[in-house]
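User: Batch of two.

Assistant: Item 1 of 2:
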Amino acid sequence: MTGGWQPLTGPSHRVALDILLDGPLSRAALARRVGLSPGSLTRITKPMLESGLLVEVSGGPSDPRVGRPSQPLDIVADSHHFVGIKLTGDHAVGVLTTLRAAVIAAADRPLPDHSPDTVAATVAALTEDLTAQGPGTGISGLGISLGGHVLNKNEVRSAAYLGWEYVPLGDLMSRHTDVPVVVANDLTALTEAAHWFGAGRGVERFCLLTIGAGIGYGMVAHGRIVDSPESSLGLIGHHPLLPGGPRCDRGHRGCASALLTTDAMVSQVGAALGRQVGYEQCLDLAERGDRAVRKIVDTAGHALGRLVAAAANFTLPDRIVLGGEGVRLVEVAHDALLAGFHADRHPDASDPPIVLLDPDFSEWARGAAVIAIQTFVLGS
């Protein structure tokens, strides 16, 4: 790989981070952002240019009076590469990315079983597969995300889909690789990906809701993710939405988990039809006008609208991002969702923009890569 990022501190770190997130930037704009004189900025950026981390790119005239062309500074995104892997109940889904989280390659492997050693070996093999598709310079970090409670970017306190409790996944990975490894809750990782390089980029305040095997919620305010040791507990999944509705596995009637998860939808449609169908088939049947399925899907869409309204009412976001493998519900039940949303909003309130993420699991894997990028860049 070309020159390193760390150990950058103080103004050097701020300069590199600003260029990473918002570059290319002219020297004048960069100096204003970080409060440096042109001479100080030149001294700071010179070693980063020499190392290959920064590059000068062509730009327009910086001063129309003299017509002298500017040469904005940008990050060499290919100077470092990262692997991100999302663990589901049966697969490891991975991507190889640049320093700006652009996906270069994607791959997946089935999990033979849920034992921590087997999962770690599978992740290591998938990492090798992805690294081999890169430029041959190796990777600078590996991020792993999963649905569960993660401590200190290393230990999985609990992960129901894998049947894990107190699994030091980061330490286990050190037996397979000498690349720095970070472990994160998948919703936290997806939120950070939207924040740094995705739908929430440049937005002061946004929230992210996901629907799929579970219900997730993440929020960024004042340019920082709102985090807590309880963030990965899936608390919003039990927000009440439909009095007297179906029960979730904890006995709550009409909560988000009972109405919006893919399993809940499949269960309700299966009961109505007398036969089992998959989640995508449920949505297909609703689109084709099956009355029983349409009613179930619209009920879910209305409930999702109420959940989005609750998020908007409490957090006043500039933007709402919806994702997860079940996000197609937003399109199929669009009218019902808007009805549920407006039912719980003040008539004078404006609708925040809503952005949909790709439902593919590679989007979650990209989030894991972003956690590795952040750890590498921020040094924490």
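Item 2 of 2:
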Amino acid sequence: MEQKIEKQKEIEKLINAKEFQFVARNSNSPTFRMIDLSIIPNFITFKPDFIKSEMPFFGRGFSGLGYGGSDTGLKFEGKPEKFVVNKHKKGYQIEASVRGQQDFFNITLIVSSEGNSTLTIISNNRESISYFGEISAIEKEEK
């Protein structure tokens, strides 16, 4: 019980600071069933002034995507045009939007009080995709 309360405090601190990272265990899109991502490096880093996504993408692309292996997944970074945190009874909902080089991304992250999370990314050029994982403190990048 005490561990659970510690975890809840840690998650609340991360959310209140608006600085954390999401890592997915698996993903689900309308085109593909559940895909295990535990061996595929992935993350999306949230900060009030900068969001960076290195998420893989499985699904249908629409216009504006390159063909022939040049698709890099949902890799984008930038200053969020929207970054809103709402607290609910059982956790948090974060709404963010980022304009990438060739696309616009609407991001919704639902976080339980223990850190388990569902990330949904909707973009103009692809079908929506959801990822299931958890949030944690941002790992310091190796220089």
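The first strand starts at residue 20 and ends at 28.
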